[in-house]
Amino acid sequence: MALHGVYDNVIFDFCDVLLDWQPRAAVEGVCAPDVLDRLFDYDDPYGFWHYDELSDLGWSEERILADYAAHHAVSDSALTSTPEVQAFRTYFERQRLALVGMIPGMDALLQELNAAGVQCWGLTNFTVKYVDAARELFAPLGVLRDVVVSSAERIHKPDPEIYRRAVSRFDIDPSHAAFVDDKQRNADAAAAAVPGLTGIQFTGASALRSALLRED
């Protein structure tokens, strides 16, 4: 039996679809656990996750470090010397280590789609630095013909414009294309922004394979 694509083009999100991204892994073992607990505290309105979003929107590493320090320093003299600031700086220096692998089964699925003649693309809330590192580290990502990256566009999902921009740049027919994201709201936003485009929530490689490939 031959495999055929349900869609001519599939656009993939990166984190939690193609890639297993674990930012704490980049600094685990080189920074004190209590320092990392504070840096990665989800309840801190000016913690790592706040600046991760700003990074995805194009903020530079130095701007992020300066702003983080300004919100956490106990005195002007401590702006650049707190353990948390140093841990954040270390994260940027070692961030490739946060790319711990590809999501199970996605390397094989990309190859199957490519062999079936399906054109594969990327659309991600990420930095260009991270995308370049991922494509260098994981050969299966080489099937992606192009990637729209939020940090370069200065907008991110679920802004409708980023979906329209991706479809236009890839020059694809949305009525024969799908966008895959681990978050339902992003998949829904893609379908709402671009008439004809199918949004698919990623729940695992096996289920996605069934949605994207058929056997004749």
Automatic annotation (TrEMBL):
**A Pfam family matched by this chain, by name?**
Hydrolase
Which Gene Ontology molecular-function terms are recorded? hydrolase activity
Q: Which UniProt keywords apply?
A: Hydrolase
Protein's recorded name:
Hydrolase
